[in-house]
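Journal club prep, notes for RB
We'll compare a predicted complex against what the paper describes. Inputs for the adenosine monophosphate case:
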Amino acid sequence: MAKRVVFLGMPGAGKGTQAEKYSASEGIAHISTGAMLRAAVDSGSELGKKVAQIMQEGQLVPDELMVDIIEARTQEDDCQSGYILDGFPRTEQQARSLGEMLEKRSESLSSVVLFELSQDEVRRRLEKRRQEENRADDAADTQDERFRVYEAQTKPLIEYYENSGALVRVDASGTVEEVFSGLVKALEN
Ligand code: AMP
């Protein structure tokens, strides 16, 4: 059966790294909305022009736009055997739209993984990433905004998915390998 998994967690919790590894080991697609949007900005496309400033400020791109992107992307061939949604949904509206989209297709989510990490550790990791990757939205004041946005808009999704019974928690504080083995264990059943 196709595996459709959502990765949830603060910016910097390691979702992207784990998604890359899990995607390779399971042979399912890795859909990072952040990476898709950054590619659009870099290419100078219409979408990129629309979202560049929003991203730079650490704000969220409008829900309808994100839902359209996900509706299209999840219908591509490489998603047939499943996919990881890394960075989507990020608001309750997005989560509801995702649920409706899947229902229309007679599909469902296999699991929602919450990567748990203290804010201090997340900040330490983001500082490291800022030095290594030079990502525009890793700048200190944008980072603060991204945390605020996470707390206000994305954190409520924990309860949302807890209520649906699909949520599994993974300790994200170890090394990449330790976190990955926790992830694999959590998604085994
Ligand atoms: P990320 O790499 O997942 O941290 O995403 C980087 C930025 O892209 C975010 O700070 C948002 O501006 C935008 N973004 C990514 N995914 C979404 C989403 N699902 N909804 C709204 N904005 C998003």
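Talking point for the session: The chain has a mean pLDDT of 94.
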